[in-house]
Amino acid sequence: MLRNAFSRFYLLGALALGLAGTAASCTDDKGNPVLFSIEDDIALGDQVARQTDSTYRAKGQLVERASNPAAYQALDAVVQKILNSGQLEHRTDFAWDVKIIKDDAIQNAFASPGGHIYVFSGLIKYLDNESELAGVLGHEMAHADRRHTSRQLQNEYGINLLLSVVLGENPNQLAQIAAGLGTLKFSRDFENEADQYSVIYLNNTGTYACDGAAGFFIKAEAENGGSGTPEFLSTHPNPGSRIQAIQTKATELNCRNRTPSNSNLQTLKANL
């Protein structure tokens, strides 16, 4: 997607001023610097998603919608409940397409800027119920919606390099960013915020037990140190304190004891 002229002018002007504490810097609702506009998030995310799709398609691991419509119908049903919670700030801005990567040995999920979410078949098969699936998806969607991914990439690569990627001037760096997205490590604040928003999203579905992400962490923590430890824990650490924080928020919202149907998760597992 092409960025609008104002966004291009703003970013190039900001670079010319050195970006160091200038008034040109944007901030989020907590005062944290975000030098990308929403249009830039979308443009970067689209490029990263195309690169990610190409990489896994070349490996024969990207599950295409046309080849497995039953799996995607089930996955989309879960995603739509989260999107329709009314709690995502960029519900109408971002793509919110969720894709499956066929690798039963990897229990992971990740988000690009602009709302492109990837989930490995190994994670889907690892989960015990649909609230856990919704909780993990909600967590990743929060990373995109709260613009954590853009901000973390900004911290690691710098605004100048990211801008060159957005402008299509640095294909090698684009490939590197896409390759590292699944192992991108967020700050503790970002992880905690994504956990909290996962609870809020699930609460407003009216369907899922809103501490679903905690259920996943409880199982993963019990297996921590074994050969089957989910890769998700390597990029989403400290499950113990996070379980407590998720459950505390869920208790506050009184949405822990829901027992939804697991039909979508069962359909996913049966078709992967």
Automatic annotation (TrEMBL):
What's this protein's family per the entry? Belongs to the peptidase M48 family.
Protein's organism:
Hymenobacter busanensis
Would you name any one GO CC term? membrane
Q: Which GO terms describe its molecular function?
A: metal ion binding; metalloendopeptidase activity
Q: Which cofactor does it need?
A: Zn(2+)
Q: Fetch the PROSITE patterns from UniProt.
A: PROKAR_LIPOPROTEIN
Co-factor note (free text): Binds 1 zinc ion per subunit.
Asked if the Swiss-Prot or TrEMBL record annotates the protein with the keyword Transmembrane helix, the reply is no
Q: What is this protein called?
A: M48 family metalloprotease
Q: Which domain of life is it from?
A: Bacteria
Q: Which Gene Ontology BP annotations are present?
A: proteolysis involved in protein catabolic process
Going by the UniProt record, its keywords in alphabetical order are: Hydrolase, Metal-binding, Metalloprotease, Protease, Zinc
